[in-house]
Design goal:
It is a single chain. The chain is α/β, with parallel strands linked by helices. The strands form five sheets. The chain has a five-stranded parallel sheet, with helices on one face. Strands 17-16-15-18-19 form a five-stranded parallel sheet. It starts with 5 loop residues before the first helix and ends with a helix. It is about 35% helix and about 15% strand. It contains 17 helices and 19 strands.
């Protein structure tokens, strides 16, 4: 009998019952909610008189609609958004669900809060009404986004009717060169395989380059796997991830910690496991990447030129490329290096952790935000904000001319008052550059935190390796 993949092991260990050849009833260890995907679910519970049987396995966060102005206390001015937040609190109070509310000192982005408090552990199944739940694969946990009707089902039963995925292994060996990060690596991969390249698969990342990544970098990688169409992303637990969890999971100590370490170390694909698809990449050839279009796969090295639509694979792709260039305001053959920006946004569940802010500080130190640029830094959580202030990062950034904001999803998506004006061009550390994603007619270029910092201090997209030579 052939060995099993890590994905298969996680599914089988959480299968309550097999429904048919393609579907199982899957048990969820943890379910996370936010204010905009939960209202209908709670309304459905109330309509049918249902309760939440496992409130301790639920977590709620106000993060998408919250303003990030440095005011205290924070007040959500938009009436519809304020209503969403009030309804979430009312429902959480009714059902006994923990909530990181608007003015909770530890409030922040759901995918930043959960790991930093030791809630995400190897071997878990974690569900959330947000597509970037794939972030948790960095811990060897199966995380993925669900729809509103599924949120109701999970609240009522702690289970989900789940359609099985195929398994893909992406091996990355070699070492990332100086000046490049896991953000550049994942943009490199997505650009190579396309926005649908992993559609229908749960991807397992492996190889020496993956093993060398920090937990923050692994979370960035898994977070953006969904931008290649992946239904999930996994990295087998190792000393890096296990150590991270045990340092934060205050309820695990002594003999329990020893048992957990042994169990988590055993969570990996068998040597003879068969994957449905396999890909390989060399980390040593990765350079800083920047998106040129309106999809994360429309990305190129900062040193390259914008492609010709005619070079795309087929008529549909050619039309999409032409539309993207028209929206983003670029011409084929032009260069991104030196392209002026008016806004810089550093934050999001992709790149709003302390490691990201340290990278920004390294670039900004001794420099100022360029004239004509509005640059914002939004920490991913209250804990990240406090740590950055304690380390002097916040003071450095404020002195350089950055806006130092309170935690939230902020300008990752136009669901709050941090938005681009029509035509504004933004260097962004977020995960999506869709049309209107950061504001109607706003133009988004995805890049790493270091690259965004370089854009802030130069006023244009800049190869950070040239700005800050690395030995």
């Amino acid at each position: 009998m052939a060995g099993r993949t890590l994905y298969r092991k996680l599914v089988e260990s959480h299968t309550v019952v097999t429904l048919d050849a393609d579907n199982v009833l899957l048990y969820a260890d943890l379910h996370i909610m936010n204010e905009y995907t939960s209202p209908q679910a709670f309304a459905g519970l109330a309509e049918h008189g249902r309760q939440v049987p496992a409130p301790g396995q639920q977590l709620a966060v106000v993060d998408h609609i919250i303003p990030t102005h440095a005011q205290s206390p924070r007040v959500i001015q938009d009436p519809a958004s304020a209503l969403q937040a009030r309804n979430l609190k009312r429902n959480c109070d009714l059902h006994g669900i923990a909530l990181f509310d608007t003015n909770d000192p530890l409030q922040g982005i759901e995918h930043v809060i959960a790991p930093e408090h030791g809630m995400i552990r190897p071997g878990m199944v974690v569900l959330c009404g947000d597509s970037h739940t794939t972030t948790y694969g960095a811990f060897g946990a199966l995380g993925f986004g669900i729809g509103t009707s599924e949120v109701e089902h999970v609240l009522a039963t702690q289970t989900l009717v789940y359609r099985l995925a195929q398994a893909m292994r992406i091996r990355v060996d070699g070492s990332l060169p100086p000046g490049t990060t896991s953000k550049d690596l994942i943009l490199h991969i997505i650009a190579r395989i396309g926005a649908q390249g992993a559609r229908g698969y749960v991807v397992e990342f492996t190889g020496s380059a993956i093993g060398a990544l920090s937990m923050e970098a692994r979370m960035t990688l898994c977070n953006m796997a969904v931008e290649a169409g992946a239904r999930g992303a996994l990295i087998a637990p190792d000393e890096t991830s296990i150590g991270y969890v045990l340092a934060r999971a205050v309820d695990i100590d002594g003999a329990m910690a020893d048992a957990a370490r042994a169990a988590w170390t055993a969570l990996h694909s068998d040597d003879d496991a068969v994957f449905d698809a396999e890909l390989a990449f060399d980390a040593s050839v990765v350079v800083p990447y920047v998106t040129w279009g309106t999809s994360p796969d429309q990305a190129i090295p900062v040193t390259a030129v914008v492609p010709q639509p005619a070079d795309a694979a087929d008529a549909s792709a050619q039309a999409a490329a032409a539309r993207a260039l028209d929206y983003i305001g670029l011409a084929p053959g032009s260069t991104l290096n030196g392209l002026a920006v008016q806004r810089v946004f550093i934050g999001s569940c992709t790149n709003g952790r302390i490691e990201d802010l340290r990278a920004v500080a390294d670039v900004v130190r001794g420099r100022k935000v360029a004239d004509g640029v509005r640059a914002m830094v939004v920490p991913g959580s209250g804990a990240v904000r406090d740590q950055a202030e304690a380390e002097g990062i916040a003071a450095l950034l404020i002195d350089a001319g950055f806006e130092w904001r309170k935690p939230g999803c902020s300008m990752c998506l136009a669901m709050n008052d941090d938005v681009l004006s029509p035509g504004e061009r933004c260097a962004s550390t977020t995960n999506r550059n869709f049309e209107g994603r950061q504001g109607r007619a706003g133009r988004t270029h995805l890049m790493s935190p270091a690259m965004a910092a370089a854009a802030a201090v130069t006023g244009c997209i800049t190869d950070v390796r040239q700005l800050n030579p690395l030995n």
